[in-house]
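Practice set, problem 2.
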Amino acid sequence: MRIRTMAATAAFLGAVTTAEPARAYDIDCAIILCMAGGFPSSAVCSAAYAEMIRRITPKPVLPPFGVCSNASAPVAFGGTGGTEALDVSKPDYAWLRRTRVIWWNGQAFEDRDGNRRWNWSVSSCQHTNLFCRVVSNGYRSEEPWPDMFTTEHGQTIAMPSASEARVFSSRSVMMEFGDYNGVMNHSGWSNY
């Protein structure tokens, strides 16, 4: 009898201690929460930042963040306690809707006459990668692309550097985002 009781107690304790810990938020929520704080230094925010960049780098590109479901955040901590998606259309999330994906495409080449020429374009798209517009461009320019450009939110950002090679082509992408207080920031360029 005593052995059965000990075995039952051991089985119960084993079941309790082997339960997986609950995740506080999914990765999309982590991206949004870390972005709100300006991606502070932490393991969670580093992983969220890396995932955001990973999503916007390949072709076809993915949106930098998806639906944040507060399913695992209890009501007591401000979560929905259910499986509803975070409604980013509310005024509290205006900072999140300012997120832009910025695309760079540049070429340096020699024309038939041996003259050096440059083509470039910088496009800015909504965080969903829709509603894009050209911010800066040049076609068959006799001058290299400018060193800087100004975003729709007034940030001055350095362009990828022009190469001295005879034939050069580059494509890059970056994120422009603001924190909860409206302070704008941006990621570095990621080549793809």
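Problem 2, part (b): a different protein.
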Amino acid sequence: MNTMTSPSRPKVLIIAEAANPEWVSVPLVGWSLANALRAVCDVHIVTQIRNRDAILRAGLVEGQDFTAIDSETFARPLWKLGNRLRMGDGKGWTMMQLIAAASYPHFERLVWKQFGPAIRAGDYDLVHRVTPLSPTISSPIAAKIHKAGVPFILGPLNGGVPWPKGFEAERLKEREWLSYLRNAYKMLPARRKTLEHASAILVGSRHTQSEIPAKHQGKCVYLPENAIDPDRFSLQAQPETGPLRACFIGRMVAYKGPDILLEAAMPLLQQGRLVLDMIGDGPLLPTLKAQTQGLKNVHFHGWVDHTKVQEIMIRNSLLAFPSIREFGGGVVLEAMALGLVPLVVDYAGPGELVYPDFGFKTPIGDRAAIVRDFRAQLTRIVSDPSKLPAMGKVAKARVNDHFTWSAKASQILQVYKWATGNQPYRPDFFG
């Protein structure tokens, strides 16, 4: 491994095809992580042209702080095709990943065309590909970066959590037919070469780490990709007096579980012992409203701008989130940052983020089992909510210590030092 020219502030080329401060999901993760790393490294961000205007509005200087690569000639037609094939807005996620896997290599080749000479000349201590997050999308330039003697950092990688048994109907509603074939990507030579030429692999979930071949496990560092911006989530939960208040935040679709929550909570709602704030929009919304017709203690807020969500969240003591297929679980961290206590299904992202001293988990099972267990846990909490304020303080401290973007940047700086030989041991942030 090559030693960095400046161990304290390495020169890093960040490849983040999706990085946008004005969007949500993966683009917001890409932007937030790349931008946070600017505080601890000398960073140049390479992103796709669609993000250019938003990054300029965020105050970065084009050419100095970032470069926008125009790969639209190839990407736009494929993206339009993917939107037609997915058969519904927000559906067919696996189809969109297939389209991304087809279009992304062109973007990286354009990156190499522009930055390859500087990488070979040693102008950068490391190259770090932050997005795409999907482990199915290989890097066609990883081998070239490795050959240039520059460490290549991959990740955080996350995704591909299997659909749990008993939810085939939900799987089909989401147009996830290709998910049955997803594991085929593991046999692709491009994937093998990408992993071989990575100096460090950041894995955003234990499931993703389990899919990395054994011979590359020594390169893996577990680091959930989500974090929060303390400026955006700066308020403190101040639950309204009266019955216990809980909120649900997410798309109103079957796999997120809003219908599961309402069914589980129905006895408590009918008894007036619980109030629910349901935040989000989606195809299930009319059915959910019909399901709770006549109940004045269920409030549907529809879609709420992400800058305004916390104003609703802080009225509550509890985040009730029975999603059965969540890769990262960013909404769980956002709730914890405000001092809410999470109640989640113990599966994938949320299950890895929540511990008994600041949250509650129910086992994964079929729909009936989750309804049963969620109802039992809600009933216990409503019957004795006295522990919630103290648990909320622990939840908030957990996020402040480990899951702010600045904390994430400091953690990744340790990975950089390890990958370049300036730190002898592989970082382990969560045991």
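Answer key, part (b): The domain at 244-402 is CATH 3.40.50.2000 (Rossmann fold). The CA atoms of residues 396 and 424 lie 32 Å apart.
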